[in-house]
Amino acid sequence: MKAKHAMAILSALCLWGCQQGNQDNDFFQPYTSTDLRLPSVPLIVNDPYFSIWSPFDKLTDGTTRHWTDREKPLTGLLRVDGVTYRFMGTDMTVYETVVPMASEEAWEGRMTRQKPSDGWEQPAYNDNTWEVKKAAFGSNDKKYVNTKWDELNSDMWVRRTISISAEDLKKDLIVKYSHDDAFEMYINGTKVIDTGDKWADDYLTMPLEGEQKELLHEGENMIAVHCHNKIGGAYIDFGFFKNTTPANDKILVAEQKSVDVLATNTYYTFGCGPVDLDVVFTAPMLIDDLDLLSMPINYISTQVRSTDGKAHSVQLYLSSSTRMAVDNENQPTVSKYIVSDGISAVRTGTIDQPILNKTGDGICIDWGYFYLPAVNGDVTIGSLRETRDAFVENGKFADNLNGKDENGLRAYKVSEQPDLAYLHDYGTVEKSQSFAMMGYDEVQDIEYMYHRYKAYWAHEGEVTITQAFREMKMRYTEIMSRCRQLDKRIYEDGMAVGGKQYAEILSGSYRHVIAAHKLFQDEDGNLLFFSKENNSNGCVNTVDLTYPEAPLFLVYNPELEKAMMTSILEYSYSGRWTKPFAAHDLGTYPKADGQVYGGDMPLEEAGNMLALAATLCKLDGNTSYVDKYWDVLTTWADYLSENGQDPENQLCTDDFAGHWPHNCNLSLKAIFGVAGYGLMAQMKGDAETGDKYLARAKEMAQKWEEMALEGDHYRLAFDKENTWSQKYNMIWDKLWGTHILSDQVFENEIQYYLTVQNKYGLPLDCRRDYTKSDWIMWTAGMSPDQETFEKFVGPVYTYINETKSRVPISDWSDTKTANMVGFKARSVIGGYWMRVLTDKLSRQNQ
Fold first, then answer.
1. Rounded distance between C-alpha atoms, residue 650 and residue 669, angstroms
2. Is the pLDDT confidence value at 381 over 60?
3. pLDDT class for 243, splitting at 50, 70, 90?
4. Is residue 51 a contact partner of residue 37, using CB atoms and an 8 Å limit?
5. For FRET with 258, which of 132, 310, 650, 725 sits at 20 to 30 Å CA-CA?
6. How many Å apart are CA 589 and CA 360, to the nearest integer?
7. What Rg, from alpha-carbon coordinates, does the chain have?
8. Following DSSP, what letter does each residue of 172-206 receive, concatenated?
């Protein structure tokens, strides 16, 4: 749309919002209370970069964090009658470097690729034959790499001599380390870190306390590390830091009384002396409103309530660190006060602004700007003493602040970084409500086939971030009401088909799924909705994420599922991708210029795309979405028909388990890809072709049943006796009502699965105790009744509720220990909605 048209719409919305916004609405009670303790609680979320969580039981137990576990500190204080209570965060942790990581200095160490003799970790070990190389060590897709290492199933050993002063030893010390994959560290010969089989992670921190700290001594110390690269990228980097965080003993900790998480809202209640404080974090990502779904702005609503019947003087303080806008805390930043479109705000970003320059998995954005607007309050920029300490003393900012200098405040090192602060004065009240907002403008959000795009909400740059803040301010009441309605719908849909535990799992997962995507529109007008493969390999728009996460979108907005698939179809249709099966991905986030994954998944991706396309056509009641790509789909279906009966040594979506020839579940994917093509052909009016492919699918299915049978269940691989695996790919037979497989297959498999479950879920297969919780929900979706379904849901609920892996739900976990094995914050848990989808389609098929 044209700019003038866009502004007219905004103005009309703002006027309507003003008329609505003066009403006193109560948005501070959740639609229903929840009992599920999420391992990490969503606070401010929008996309893979603007994503802030609290991985603690209490909001005051630690700093808020990005899903990568990088600190992105938000602070919340409430001052009541001159007494200040902290309700969010802890003091922003300030670390000074003792021993640098590669982001600060290309440090040197001795390394070897050959397995060393025993004692390699000891200080006295003779490492003269090892090579002297510069850090970091790793593959080309990693940051700050100076020594290349990228071979699969390989190892590296590194020894580094560091110097520690007596003064440093008096401080609280931490180790920061990045690794890919399995990593172990020794300090002067004693092991202090062992990640086991855990996959890659960046900038992890471990405090050195007690006996571990005593391993260090004044002068030279030997740090020895070993890393094993199993698959994908490789990486080693580490450093030591001292905590120099200033303390403030005048701030009391608020008493957290409750926390409830629903689809779009997180509700907290705190006791602050004679006042209770209600805080609601709202990400208005409404699945049927593309502007709001993509809008990088969240609300923080607050309400104070006197508990003693008296009026009290109350002020609210919120602050953010400049770390919101950096990938590495040592990056120089510029923070400034701006006024635009009737909105005053403070913002921060890096000085360099390397827009879309960086790709990868465990990274944070270092371009664009974080905004804290003066909505219902005042804002400023300053040091902790100028902002927080002044608030504690006087309930206001310091008089001599220069935070509104429009030239901005530049900071070149960690100790200089200011806070962005917000203050709201409720006055002397018994009860009062208000709201604040936070947002992030990425300037340019994603690259697709070498064109750069802004997110959908910006309408090709015609809507600015300050215009968006103004609109969101004026529409607050309407948007909050709609969010509450979606919370109710998500919960009730889960409750109706799966009970309370299922409803709570869905409610706690919605923002997690949506925030792993970027929505935009390309130059041809195609709506595109790209996932990032968080904590896996960072790929963008991976087909084997689009497949498992599909149920959420097929239930509530199939156009978003199409928006994930269109680019893959176009990739083949355009001739850029020429293989007879679908691509795995389109690049590494945020650059979607072509597949980067090193190995193809031919049956996997072709089957995924055909099954999803058939389901979309059934929901639409026609084939108009796929007609343009019919030749592409035909090529894929023929590939499945020719190669899918007894798969060769191919990768499937569970690639972490390695290649597995004769995979029965992968064969099922091929069978239902062929069947899906047949269904679409029938819908096109080509009965002859449709009947041909459906007959082929039934022929393959009959052979499958004969080849896979293992007594009372079916095998993991056709040639492997005494094995079993989840056959989640046969769910399409239920969803479509095609009866490709006999009913006995479903009965046998479901009953057998119930005999091999562990406390924290159904293992993926007989090889290991680990599982994928998204696939459990797909498998459970085939249950004959709700009672059986809940037998699968219960252990998943227990896992989420009890896991000690405090990350946004890990979909890959151990069913005996509840520990994360790998993966976090991934969109695949959209698969949790499979039971809701089966209910929707079963009613449609009647």
1. 13
2. yes
3. confident
4. no
5. 310
6. 6
7. 27
8. -EEEEEEEESEEEEEETTEEEEE-TT---EEEEEE
